[in-house]
Structures are given as C-alpha cells and as structure tokens.
User: Which sequence fits this backbone?
C-alpha cells in the first residue's frame, strides 16, 4: 500500500509558506518509522478528499529538529491547525475521521492560541 504524502515544510520555509496560506491548514509532524504517523497520513488524505479546501503539510520531525523543538513535539505524530496563515491551535484527538472533524470544528469555534 502506498502511503500518501503531503507538501513538505522545512525550517527554512515553514513560517513563510504558512503565512501565505489562505484558509485552513493542518501541519503534521511525522517521521519515517512512525506507525501512528502512517495511520494519520491515511486519515488526513481521506479528510482532504472530503474537505478539499483544507490543506495538509508535513514536517519530518527527525530532519527538522528546530521546528520539532519549537512546537514542543515530544510524541509523534504532532498536529497543528493554522487559519489564514496564522497559528490557531494544536489538534489532539483519536485517529478516526469523525474525531478529527469534531476536533477541527471545535478548534475553529474557539479563539486562537498563542503560537508555541
């Protein structure tokens, strides 16, 4: 089975590219050997098929340690929500389609948090 891939962000373009991103974007911190990350990638690809307006970006947590530390990612995967090019919040939920949708909906209804 082929695992989906999303546009990669690294420490040099992360903030600039997200700042230019309109609408809702999810940033997934992942690593090659992370089984949970693979499951989340499949889930996010499914979510994108239903919610085409939502963008998903990926950060290799092992390669980009500066970003991993900046976002205080201690366990993979790490998911973060951006709206209109600005940090909105971390996303935490079970890896199920309805749980992800509910977490995004709840996060969007709440005020934005300060970036990490």
Assistant:
């Amino acid at each position: 089975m082929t695992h989906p891939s999303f546009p990669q962000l690294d420490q040099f373009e992360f903030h600039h590219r997200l700042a230019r991103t309109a609408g809702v974007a999810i940033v997934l911190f992942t690593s090659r050997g992370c089984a949970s990350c693979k499951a989340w990638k499949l889930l996010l690809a499914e979510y994108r098929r239903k919610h085409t307006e939502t963008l998903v970006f990926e950060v290799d947590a092992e390669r980009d340690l500066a970003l991993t530390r900046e976002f205080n990612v201690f366990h993979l995967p790490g998911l973060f929500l951006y709206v209109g090019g600005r940090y909105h919040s971390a996303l935490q939920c079970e890896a199920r389609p309805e749980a992800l949708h509910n977490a995004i909906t709840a996060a969007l209804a709440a005020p934005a948090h300060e970036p990490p």
User: Anything to note?
Assistant: The radius of gyration is 13 Å.
